[in-house]
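Tip: read the tokens left to right.
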């Protein structure tokens, strides 16, 4: 692919690709990284792209797939990290049977939370981060963080109450 074709056909799509990536990833930095990776991939595979007749559709598909792959990968890492954190806490103290049951119950309840609520409650409670640190890591606004945390805590309390009544 010639540099002219890249600059005429693909580079003008950067804003549209960024918006798509941001919508999926919900992070400015991650979205910019995704778009940069897409352009790098396009440039490296330039000779194979001579048959692409609709660069916008091609690029949108690439960015969507890349972002979804990153989300899946991040979810798997978050699950592994949560499991490790819970394991470390469980091993660090001698737990009674009822305390272990509560930990299992909370772990199950946390796993059932929506992704963003689970992320915020994990960072705040298990990792002990404050709001600015969570904002920096996730790109989620302060008020949204507070709402997500409040909603997650409310759901966890409800889940524990329902469990105790059985």
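Filled-in amino acids:
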């Amino acid at each position: 692919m010639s540099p002219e074709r890249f600059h005429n056909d693909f580079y003008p799509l950067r804003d549209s690709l960024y918006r798509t990536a941001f919508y999926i990833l919900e992070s400015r930095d991650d979205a910019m990284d995704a778009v940069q990776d897409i352009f790098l991939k396009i440039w490296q595979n330039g000779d194979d792209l001579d048959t692409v007749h609709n660069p916008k559709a091609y690029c949108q598909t690439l960015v969507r797939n890349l972002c979804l792959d990153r989300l899946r990968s991040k979810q798997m890492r978050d699950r592994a990290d949560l499991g490790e954190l819970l394991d470390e806490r469980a091993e660090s103290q001698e737990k009674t049977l009822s305390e272990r049951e509560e930990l299992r119950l909370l772990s199950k309840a946390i796993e059932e939370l929506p992704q963003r609520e689970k992320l915020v409650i994990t960072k705040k409670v298990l990792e002990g981060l404050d709001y600015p640190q969570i904002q920096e890591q996730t790109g989620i606004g302060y008020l949204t963080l507070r709402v997500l945390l409040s909603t997650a805590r409310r759901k966890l309390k409800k889940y524990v109450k329902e469990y105790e009544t059985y």
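The longest helix spans residues 55-92. The mean pLDDT is 81.
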